[in-house]
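Sample pair:
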Amino acid sequence: MNAIALMLIGLGAFALGYLFYSRFIAAHIYALDDSRPTPAHELADGIDYVATNRFVLWGHHFTSVAGAAPIVGPAIAVIWGWLPAFIWVVVGTIFIAGVHDFGAIWASIRNKARSVGALTGSLVGRRAQSLFMIVIFLLLLMVNAVFAVVIAGLFVSFPESVIPAWSAIVVALILGQLIYRRLIGLTLLSIIGVAVLYLMIWVGQFVPVALPDQALGLGANAQWIVILFIYAAIASLLPVWVLLQPRDYINGLQLFIGLGLIFAAVLVANPQVVAPAINPNVPPGTPPLIPLLFFTIACGAISGFHGLVSSGTTSKQLNRESDARFVGYFGAVGEGSLALAAIIATTAGFATLGEWEALYTAFGSGGVNAFVEGGATIMQSGYGLPMAVGTTLLAVMAVLFAATTMDTGIRLQRYIIQEWGQIHDLDWLRGKAISTLVAVGACLALAFGAGGLDGTGGLVIWPLFGTTNQLLAALTLLVVTLMVVRLGKPPWFTLVPMIGLLIMTVSALLMQLIQFYRDGDWFLLSLDILVLIAAIAVVLEVAGALTCSMRSHTGEEEGQ
């Protein structure tokens, strides 16, 4: 298979989805209306509720939902062959992820920017809301704890990425002030910010930064984890325009330049996809393609975490309703494009099939390193970019996106804890500082409590992430469907993807239950049962409300 054909088919499909399908959803299903004031104007506070230029907001939303997952997932999933991964990324982005992310923003802005969990309370009931919030909190706990491990591992493996990654924070702080105070035009600021960022990538090659092997009883990996959580706690308390928005915006531009460099290299080098379309010789121990493909590739096709970002931070910054299509659906397209680049890099970035098979010796043996090495190889073949520069550039890209997701994740966890305080009349939980400490404390307790001094405790519950994440996506689509029905619009464009996701997720949770029982892993078995019970209860509650709404709407039509 020619990599150029794979790239053109994927990007062409994404373009058609955005130009036509998203426009149909906006006009006929969500019925966007710019005359309705958004929460960013109604509840403006200069901290969390800030009306934002849609391009800047798109950068925040896109980089927050992207993280390292659309790189890691496809880089692992190609072990089954490139074709299943490619089909799932393209179809999932156009018909599920775009509608889901767009829909979560829309549902939230129509309800004072409440999170999808809190929104369930007003639409369905207190019981469903409480159960939904448990699933959300567990998911955020997993994301924040594990992304800290991922970033720390990248810093240790690629010390040349440290200077560029942290200098991006300084650049973002300066950009935030200039953008907010409108001292310089956005176009000029964008050019300057990207130029400085790439200058730091070049500098990073010559100034690698490595922490000591041991300090205060912690290894280098654990030291980075502590530093990252301290940073994330501070960042989550700052007004969004100070750091979160400008950092995510400049990272979004950096990603699109990185994607452009990879896709341009594909056009010039014209590499062949050496991996098989369907791999008949998967390594021993590789799990079955179905349903695992749909959880291995989450971000890049569909991810419940996106609904949390959409209804948590993005909806609080939307300037007008029509921006939801650009920010939400096009954000999903951007992530799908990143997943497509990961598929090409990890299947065409090798000289021979034997070289590819030498790396993919077990499930999970691909990952970020396969993307970094494969992408750098393609860029070197395409226009002679030195391998050292290419690996640094792609490693920095992975670090920056994982870091922005972690930033947003801690802020979202703070929102959830504050909402709990509001729901249960616990005033002490409503404060930003206390709720942030609780959020970071829970993550650190998991990281070091379950993982010991290496801080990798998040990996203990990570096996449940894929199913919990996609379960949350299905539940979010279910809530969006309920709103669509109450508006009298056709529900099938959200209901059908939701049913498919729900079937796959419950099947996977049951498979995991059996495996955890056989392995004697009682901790994960208990968590799996908790998630499954909560999910089934939420589905029954929302399904009941959905059925009543559909009957009511049908009765009204018959009465007319």
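The chain has a mean pLDDT of 85.
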